[in-house]
Design a protein that fits this description.
Blueprint (H helix, E strand, L loop, with lengths): L1 H29 L5 E3 L2 E4 L2 E2 L2 E5 L3 H5 L5 H13 L4 E5 L10 E3 L2 E2 L1 H16 L3 E5 L9 H11 L14 H15 L16 E5 L13 H17 L4 E3 L26 H6 L6 E5 L1 H4 L5 H23 L3 E6 L10 H20 L4 E7 L21 H24 L1
Parallel strand pairs: 4-5, 4-13, 5-8, 8-9, 9-10, 11-12, 12-13
Antiparallel strand pairs: 1-2, 2-3, 6-7
Helix pairs in contact: 3-4, 5-6, 6-7, 10-11, 11-12
Amino acid sequence: MTSIIKNLFSIYMVFHLISTLACEARSLRVTPNFVQRKGTEFMLNGSPFLFNGFNSYWMMNVASDPNQRYRVSNVFQKASAAGLTICRTWAFSDGGNQSLQISPGLYNEQMFQALDFVIGEAKKNGVRLILSLVNNYKDFGGRPQYVEWANSTGIPVNNDDDFYTNHVIKGYYKNHVKTVLTRINTITKIAYKDEPTIMAWELINEPRCQVDYSGKIINEWVKEMAPYVKSIDKKHLLEVGLEGFYGDSIPDRKQYNPGFQVGSDFVSNNLVKDIDFGTIHAYPDNWLAGQNDTMQMEFMQRWITSHLQDSRTILKKPLVFTEFGMSKNDSGYSIEARDSFMNTVYSSIYSLAQNGGTFAGGLVWQLLDEGMDSYDDGYEIVLTQNPSTSSVISQQSSKMIALEHTLSNKH
């Protein structure tokens, strides 16, 4: 009798072990790993990672009102259904109404819980996030708010460009970085720096500097802040937030700018060791206002190909088209014109990604839920209300997924 019980117990233990291992295997499958970089490619679980994505900068702001959170969920669900797997959004709101950072080092817990919710919803829907840490512009506070905080305590400042050079203001920024990266999500219970749903951090949205168009002041700032971010979080990728303007490091490259400089330098700023990939934005309808569609599209092609070439040969890092769109406020706008513009951009991304994977994907500006008219900026896309545009987006997602499989099979 004893031996039978022993045998039954042994059989039970074997089954228990098998079921435990099966559960562990299942949890391993559903737990996403961190997106990594290997040379000029993004990698996920040892295979090339390509994507189609979108911007929805407003998510934390909207999620701060519990009655509006469904809008965040709706956009993630519909984006995921359209094959979109990356969302870029703000992890900042400095001073003023609905601020995340009320004043230097003082945070609004309700707003932080809204960001927790955004990350949780992204995770549920299989969408990864690029989170930007401060704005160049005064919207949501940005550089001007940081400088104003310093000014209000009696620290002598000249202009908003002191953001990059004043040691007190740089201390404010570093504190914000540390606070966000070490935040423990109240929903997932995971620290942001340990959350694989986050693909990358962005130092600043569209850095510009009026007192120095060479790119050197911004470069010194990046050289200080990039290692600081990595000292706290070595798991995540990091990018600057650049639009792609060329500076003085390679003067010949300035011919590709849209007729002006903004104080950043695509090459030198992205060469900083702790920066993992390059980014470009493009708004030819805005930058080249007054030029016809043909000239604007010719600019786009030059913009895309020159940055890809530099990313591949000089930076030796991946490239992401982190913002592009066409505004309905443009004189030549129609839904058909916007779809055509997006198709052209998508085709360029796809064809260049085919050739080695350096061009990893694009993020259209911007997706909204229905009834969010207060966030309209001319570029808004509501997937349920714009079926033709939704189709253009879904087709690109399918092509990038198929290409990713092809490249994975070659590895």
